[in-house]
Amino acid sequence: xxxxxxxxxxxxxxxxxxxxxxxxxxxxxxxxxxxxxxxxxxxxxxxxxxxxxxxxxxxxxxxxxxxxxxxxxxxxxxxxxxxxxxxxxxxxxxxxxxxxxxxxxxxxxxxxxxxxxxxxxxxxxxxxxxxxxxxxxxxxxxxxxxxxxxxxxxxxxxxxxxxxxxxxxxxxxxxxxxxxxxxxxxxxxxxxxxxxxxxxxxxxxxxxxxxxxxxxxxxxxxxxxxxxxxxxxxxxxxxxxxxxxxxxxxxxxxxxxxxxxxxxxxxxxxxxxxxxxxxxxxxxxxxxxxxxxxxxxxxxxxxxxxxxxxxxxxxxxxxxxxxxxxxxxxxxxxxxxxxxxxxxxxxxxxxxxx
Length: 354
Ligand code: SAH
Ligand code: SF4
Known about the structure:
Layout: E1 5-6, H1 12-21, H2 27-37, H3 52-59, E2 62-63, E3 68-74, E4 80-86, E5 92-100, E6 103-107, E7 111-113, H4 122-126, E8 128-131, H5 134-149, E9 157-160, H6 170-181, E10 193-197, H7 201-209, E11 216-219, H8 225-231, H9 240-254, E12 258-264, H10 272-282, E13 287-293, H11 307-318, E14 324-326, H12 340-353
Parallel strand pairs: 1-2, 6-9, 9-10, 10-11, 11-12, 12-13, 13-14
Antiparallel strand pairs: 3-4, 4-5, 5-6, 7-8
Helix pairs in contact: 1-2, 5-6, 7-9, 10-11
Bound molecules: S-adenosyl-L-homocysteine and iron/sulfur cluster.
């Protein structure tokens, strides 16, 4: 396994310093930056405007492959591809490419595991291992960007909805976002990157203060504290009223529409009462609701709502003037829910070792 420095972990200043140490002029950093983030070079060896000796020196110290591919899964319609990567310290992360019409959306991880413990979530069920570095977040994007460029395509959207809670790893996640949106780096529009959060209130306020342009999605999943406490432990720390205050603050500061995520769980949070409470909470707000029938996971006995219940929930919400979309669970047949591929692979490894 590789213990070389992950080249994507270096800031532009770090890179400039590294090259100075190697006795290289300043403009080399710019050249390498372009190779990494604009040409999507797979390796230092491809950086043909560097001397062979510099490429050799760099190859001995840095890598653009900070993890190894363990397995991939394709959905039966071929539109969703999920990759499981192994990090040098034995942790796993998942990245998903979703292809729909002209969109090429990546769902990326920000942590190995997650500390938030949402009961219905496969990542929450495995617990927290560690934050991903900036370079590990970037490398997931570049991995698929390279793959797409081979067929003349590009990453068009990114959602931070893989493993982990992005705002629990604020610095690294937002440093990666800055590099993904920088015109001289990956150059993706800020509006094309969605950060999904379980609702870490101080981090949402910081995000608002920083006037961030990347859209925010809030994983709400219940409209009463009694119900949300059962699903999302962090709700006990920042209950719905406190969370909503922070969201209003964000909308005030940025004038950005907010998205709410709602995994519909049969007989739990899909009742008309929950729809009404949600309607009351969101009435008149600059927002949209994504309804996603629950993806069943190993350690939680909840089931997805039936199409009839989904429709009834959506209709009730519409009575409050709240717009919503029922999200098709693309790639459900490949366990595209976050954390689920790792679960299966780790279980198989354990069985093999028994
Ligand atoms: N930690 C962040 C982002 C990662 S989870 C967050 O919670 O928002 C991405 C989305 O998947 C969240 O909306 C989360 O609630 C949802 N999710 C997790 N497990 C799910 C499941 N089993 N079925 C449906 N959605 C799920
Ligand atoms: Fe973590 Fe999000 Fe899963 Fe909750 S839903 S455990 S915050 S990854």
